[in-house]
Amino acid sequence: MDKYEQSVLLKKLFWAAVLVIITKNLSNSVLGVNGNKNLELLEERPDNHLAYSKVNHGVCELGEMEADAWTMVQKNGNQFVVNDQPFYVNGFNTYWLMVFAVDQSTRGKVSELFQQASSVGLTVCRTWAFNDGQWRALQKSPSVYDEEVFKALDFVVSEAKKYKIRLILSLTNNWEGYGGKAQYVKWGKAAGLNLTSDDDFFSHPTLRSYYRAHVKTVLNRVNTLTNMTYKDDPTIFAWELMNEPRCVSDPSGDTLQEWIEEMAVYVKSIDPKHLVEIGLEGFYGPSTLNKVQFNPNTYAQQVGTDFIRNHQVLGVDFASVHIYADSWISQSISDAHIPFIKSWMQAHIDDAENFLGMPVVFGEFGVSTKDPGYNSSFRDTLISTVYKTLLDSTKKGGSGSGSLLWQLFPEGADYMDDGYAVILSKSPSISNIISLQSTRLTTFNSLCSWKCRWGCKKKHPLEASLYHDDL
């Protein structure tokens, strides 16, 4: 064995030892299990699906929170960072938290959900910061608010911080659920405006002013529990302009584009500290006809959205994409679903990196138990596919920066289930899949420093092969 071969062998042994030590420490201090053997057993045993409930993701004592410096999530190129360290969105949706927090009889479900989510390493929750003119409305009429409902939103924000969960707060809805643009149009008609379509929400100056007023009110809200203004609270990860905006009355995309341009800058004018995203589903539009092949169907390019053009707007910090093969391809579970998900995700990861220079978050994904041919094994495969695609991007320093499962429920909220609900205590396989993804992302952060993450495969190919490729 010559000196070069000895050097190579020593390097391999050294980095292998480092990997073993760090993995062991992570297993003991982060996972709450001892070693890889126990981790394998944990994954296989259904009775252990919430075995991560004692890990260091739970409720934080004040001293610990201060030591961890609970600061704003920021963007560095095509990555999220916190305190100059990479931050990955491993999260979930639960849109109805504010409504549940209004009533003392259901408020505990909010805490229960955050505790369970934290126990498997989930770190971001997307939820509604609106309820327009409906039952338990936050905004009862333009600029008229129910203080008790606002206090419920205060509780959601303060409770999230206790469990070290950050929030993406959506500001209105494209759909009629919880009011949305249809309710703004109803308000406009009641005020005597000549409106003919729900899409007038995007173009009529009065309706735009209603929306801006809501944005201003929410961003400037002072939390009654923490005494912190929302726009200054690091618990809020990002503002979302709208849930799944579409403007089918203008397939060119110009109407929605103008609305995004105005509102993204408006949000930033009030709150330059937080990140902003649109809330799009991710359909390619007229500006990139060479990309429409990645859309799930031909109708997708006619709904007035345009993924790349929309995200080139000043004030938009990261791209948003949703994944619903069972809504877009076929409701029946099909062999075509998984390949579509892979190509859909990869196209957007590549475009976020090469054309937009920003992170991309897959803000909703899931499968309904009501779909013909549904089985839990397919759901496990779908979630694992999303996670693996993101992890592959992460290991390369790509733009794939996270995902949010639609949707996570605590026990006892089944009556709110739209078919997509995941109850961790009743879904051991999904709990383990989520926990494993959390562990992999935590391990990746621990093993690879910020500088090394960008260049280690070129500078240290031997070492990189030992700890990157096997995660």
Automatic annotation (TrEMBL):
EC number: 3.2.1.78
Taxonomy, superkingdom: Eukaryota
Predominant place of localization: secreted
Catalytic activity: Random hydrolysis of (1->4)-beta-D-mannosidic linkages in mannans, galactomannans and glucomannans
Coiled-coil residue spans: none
Cellular component GO terms, alphabetical: extracellular region
EC class (word): hydrolase
GO molecular function, one term: mannan endo-1,4-beta-mannosidase activity
Subcellular location: Secreted
UniProt key word Secreted: yes
Glycoside hydrolase family domain sequence ranges: 72-406
Keywords in alphabetical order: Glycosidase, Hydrolase, Secreted
InterPro entries: GH, Glyco_hydro_5, MAN-like
Family statement drawn from the similarity comment of this UniProt entry: Belongs to the glycosyl hydrolase 5 (cellulase A) family.
Name used for this protein in its record: mannan endo-1,4-beta-mannosidase
Organism: Actinidia chinensis var. chinensis (Chinese soft-hair kiwi)
Classification of source organism: Eukaryota, Viridiplantae, Streptophyta, Embryophyta, Tracheophyta
